[in-house]
Amino acid sequence: MPWIYLLLAGVFEIGFALGLKYSEGFTRLWPSVITVVFAAISLWLLTQALRTIPVGTGYAVWTGIGAVGVAIAGVFLFGDSASWPRLLCIGLIVAGVMGLKLVS
């Protein structure tokens, strides 16, 4: 169950980071509210996961899920580059997250 909490925490981390873009510096009310709610849910889920998962592993996986998710969303939502070096780097993050899961 802690790994499911961590996965969900990462998904809400993606929503939080994207919300930062849509809130335009917290100048738009509803995107700002959603951003804060997603951040709170993400952190709560992370704390639940860290009851069992080592903090270094949990935090690295959480940030990795967020980083990969936001990078991929940026390609589709904001027209960010999808060049092979960028995709390779995203793949390295995924490999690192998978490695941490396998050794924990």
From TrEMBL:
Q: Which InterPro entries match?
A: EmrE-like, Small_drug/metabolite_transptr, Small_multidrug_res
Question: One Pfam match, by short name?
Answer: Multi_Drug_Res
Keyword Transferase present in the record's keywords: the answer is no
Q: Which residues are listed as membrane-spanning?
A: 29-47, 59-78, 84-103
GO terms of biological process kind? xenobiotic detoxification by transmembrane export across the plasma membrane
Q: How does it sit in the membrane?
A: Multi-pass membrane protein
Which GO molecular function terms does the record list? transmembrane transporter activity
Q: What is this protein called?
A: Guanidinium exporter
Specify whether Cell wall biogenesis/degradation is a keyword of the entry.
no
What is the annotated localization of this protein?
Answer: Cell membrane
Alphabetically ordered keywords of this record: Cell membrane, Membrane, Transmembrane, Transmembrane helix, Transport
Return the GO cellular component terms, semicolon-separated: plasma membrane
Highest taxon above the source species: Bacteria
Tell me which Gene3D superfamilies the record gives: 1.10.3730.20
Give the range the annotation lists for the signal sequence: none
Task: Give the family this protein belongs to, as stated in its UniProt record.
Answer: Belongs to the drug/metabolite transporter (DMT) superfamily. Small multidrug resistance (SMR) (TC 2.A.7.1) family. Gdx/SugE subfamily.
